[in-house]
């Protein structure tokens, strides 16, 4: 089973690398947004604004990047119904979404660091908080993409369904990231980080329970 | 629910309870605490709305799970109408809460976490209806919306009950304020409050049952 998940993952990564405009369109999107923020906020960003904008950018990146994850009408998908089980497809989609979004988020953090100065803080803790939030965003949008792939207008439905559901994740992520950027230590954020990770676990468990009802049309 | 669809006695008891609540809630003496004074009477109208909403959403989720198990269209119709009733009660709860907040907290919307969380919870369920409207095929629509219903319910539970307790909040029971137990709800209030919860929940299920009956008949007509 692990082997099949690895093969599905490699298929997804290969498809993404080989598509001419795939990754670069999203990178363009990211850089344009960061430029726009740079030009709009002439007086620079306070730590609170920095964190808020960072997570808004990640939210929109998640919606644009993960919409191609599930294409229900793709004729290739017919073969997967025979070859693999739903859980293997789900695990590979979750891992792929998380890896993709995490890479994009690190590039986003890098872009923000280039344009805006923030005083030094505990970077490892920062990365942990970002990763926990991205885990929640990616698994939520993977599941929402599966739900909305059956509707007539996938990207719009993904935004409509996804935004309210991700608000608790974003709320907790912005809180803990802000505390870390303002110079907090692990003890300041441990409770909220634990809550965020448990919400992530709930979403992933929900995905495992519900995906078998979603994958076939 | 099928029992509720076929009997009437509980509707009469709901009407009786609510008549009592309206009369006693507005006439009976209430303890006058600072800030709250007489506005505590809204307790009998605001909190039962939320109780009713949670019971209606719980019933809706149960019928969604049943639909996923046996794919019968009537389960899906019941689930959708219960969710609709729940959303109506949620809006009423929000409006009564804003009305109450104008007099006690000074403004209708004071960025309280529980207020924000309940508004977001309602948005999640409104998205459920958008989803239902966007899928044409009835079998697919019922299955996908059942999945989303379960997802939505299990999202609003931490949103409404856990997150507000972790932050500063003006609501009783959250953010360090005394809750319903420590409120030591005065016995005079309890006399009206418990019937209010029961009465408003009955009205919620009554509303859902009427709409469900209409929808089930329509479904049978189009077959």
**Helix-strand topology string of chain A:** HHHHHHHH
- Residue windows where pLDDT falls under 50 for at least 5 positions of chain A: none
Which sheet architecture does the biggest sheet of chain B show? none
How many H/I helices of chain B? Answer: 7
What proportion strand of chain A?
Answer: under 5%
Radius of gyration of chain B: 19 Å
Q: Number of helical runs of chain A? A: 8
Q: Structural class of the helices, strands and pairings of chain A?
A: mainly alpha
Could you tell me how far the N terminus lies from the C terminus of chain B, measured between alpha carbons in angstroms?
A: 22 Å
Secondary structure: number of strands of chain A: 0
Strand content of chain B: under 5%
> Which structural category fits the helices and strands of chain B?
mainly alpha
Average pLDDT confidence of chain B is 84
Task: Calculate Rg of chain A over CA atoms.
Answer: 18 Å
What would you say about this model in short?
The complex is a heterodimer of chains A (217) and B (223). Chain A has eight helices and no strands.
Structure description:
The complex is a heterodimer of chains A (217) and B (223). Helices cover 81% and strands 0% of the residues of chain A. Chain A has 8 helices and no strands. The longest helix of chain A has 30 residues, at 86-115. With 223 residues, chain B is an all-alpha fold. Chain B has helices at residues 2-6, 9-27, 43-70, 73-104, 113-134, 138-166, 187-222. Chain B is globular and about 60 Å long. The chains are: A mainly alpha (217), B mainly alpha (223). The A-B interface holds A 143, 147-148, 150-153, 157, 160-161, 163-165, 167-168, 171-172, 191-192, 195, 199, 202-203, 206, 209-210, 213-214, 217 and B 68, 117, 120, 123-124, 127, 130-131, 134-136, 140, 143-144, 146-148, 150-152, 154-155, 158-159, 162-163, 166.
């Amino acid at each position: 089973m692990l082997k099949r998940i690895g093969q599905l993952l490699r298929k997804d990564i290969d498809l993404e690398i080989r598509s001419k405009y795939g990754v670069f369109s999203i990178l363009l999107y990211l850089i344009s947004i960061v430029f726009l923020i740079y030009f709009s906020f002439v007086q620079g960003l306070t730590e609170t604004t920095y964190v808020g904008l960072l997570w808004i950018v990640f939210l929109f990146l998640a919606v644009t990047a993960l919409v191609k994850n599930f294409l229900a009408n793709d004729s290739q998908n017919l073969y997967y119904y025979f070859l693999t089980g739903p859980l293997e497809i789900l695990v590979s989609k979750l891992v792929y979404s998380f890896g993709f979004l995490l890479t994009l988020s690190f590039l986003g953090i890098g872009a923000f660091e280039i344009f805006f100065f923030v005083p030094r803080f505990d970077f490892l803790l920062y990365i942990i908080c970002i990763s926990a939030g991205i885990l929640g965003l990616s698994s939520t949008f993977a599941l929402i993409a599966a739900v909305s792939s059956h509707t007539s207008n996938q990207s719009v439905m993904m935004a409509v369904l996804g935004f309210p559901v991700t608000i608790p994740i974003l709320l907790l992520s912005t809180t803990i990231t802000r505390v870390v950027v303002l110079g907090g230590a692990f003890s300041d954020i441990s409770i909220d980080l634990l809550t965020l990770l448990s919400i992530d676990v709930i979403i992933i468990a929900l995905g495992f329970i519900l995906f078998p009802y979603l994958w076939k049309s | 629910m099928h029992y509720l669809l076929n009997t009437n006695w509980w509707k009469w008891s709901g009407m009786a309870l609510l008549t009592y609540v309206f009369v006693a809630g507005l006439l009976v003496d209430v303890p006058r605490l600072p800030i709250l004074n007489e506005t505590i009477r809204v307790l009998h109208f605001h909190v039962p709305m939320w109780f009713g909403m949670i019971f209606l959403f719980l019933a809706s989720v149960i019928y969604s799970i049943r639909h996923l198990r046996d794919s019968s269209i009537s389960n899906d119709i019941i689930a959708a109408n219960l969710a609709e009733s729940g959303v109506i009660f949620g809006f009423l709860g929000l409006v009564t809460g804003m009305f109450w907040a104008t007099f006690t907290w000074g403004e209708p919307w004071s960025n309280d976490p529980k207020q924000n969380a309940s508004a977001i919870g309602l948005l999640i369920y409104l998205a459920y209806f958008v989803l239902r409207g966007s899928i044409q095929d009835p079998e697919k629509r019922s299955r996908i919306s059942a999945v989303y219903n379960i997802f939505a319910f299990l999202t609003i539970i931490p949103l409404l009950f856990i997150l507000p307790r972790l932050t500063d909040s003006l609501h009783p029971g959250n953010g360090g304020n005394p809750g319903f137990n420590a409120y030591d709800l005065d016995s005079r209030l309890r006399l009206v409050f418990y019937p209010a919860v029961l009465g408003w929940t009955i009205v919620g299920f009554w509303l859902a049952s009427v709409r469900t009956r209409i929808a089930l008949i329509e479904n049978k007509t189009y077959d």
